[in-house]
Write a structure and sequence with these properties.
alpha+beta, Immunoglobulin-like, 2 domains, elongated
Length: 180
């Protein structure tokens, strides 16, 4: 609840003072009349306080709504870094890979290649396995936090259960983070 101003405190004090004086006048008189006067004084003070609180809440809501409108734009350095990251991430690609069947497993072996000018600190690659109709049956992933220098390649191997319906696999690099 917002803090009361000195004027508001003074007004409440005066209302209470009037109420107390009215009670003293009617002390020996009609108790019903005393109750009515006291009720209306307290009700009036309560309504006034609620009104003041409601005003403060509305002001805060308006202030909050407009604060998001007037926030400063992101710095150009952050935007430039985001654009550069997106461009460089597209340069970390899946190299050659092949799928081989083992006794009970399917092996996908290949390389992730860094064609960017920046050092990669982490990458994640996904293998997608398909049936003869081209429907994805399953997927698997591999990742590495080993440093991948510009122009370098990193070998990977994914071992997956050999499901009879798998006829094809594809690979893609999904996540790349650079060392900056």
């Amino acid at each position: 609840m917002p803090e009361l101003t000195p004027e508001e405190k003074r007004r409440i004090y005066e209302e209470e003072k009037v109420r107390i004086e009215a009670q003293k006048k009617f002390k020996g008189g009609n108790s019903f009349l005393n109750c009515c006067v006291g009720f209306f004084v307290f009700a009036g003070a309560g309504l006034w306080l609620l009104n003041e609180y409601d005003k403060a809440v509305r002001v805060e809501r308006v202030r909050a709504a407009f604060s998001s409108v007037y926030t400063s734009p992101p710095s150009n350095n952050l935007l430039e870094k985001e654009v550069k990251d997106k461009a460089d991430k597209s340069k970390v690609k899946m190299g050659e890979y092949k799928t081989e069947r083992g006794e009970n497993y399917l092996y996908v072996r290949g390389n992730v290649v860094n064609y960017s000018s920046r050092t990669v600190r982490y990458w994640k690659a996904m293998a997608h396995f398909f049936d003869k109709n081209g429907n994805e049956v399953d997927s698997a992933m591999t990742n590495s936090a080993d440093t991948l220098l510009p122009g370098a390649a990193k070998h990977f191997e994914i071992m997956h259960s050999d499901l009879p319906q798998i006829t094809n696999a594809s690979m893609e690099v999904e996540v790349v983070d650079f060392r900056d």
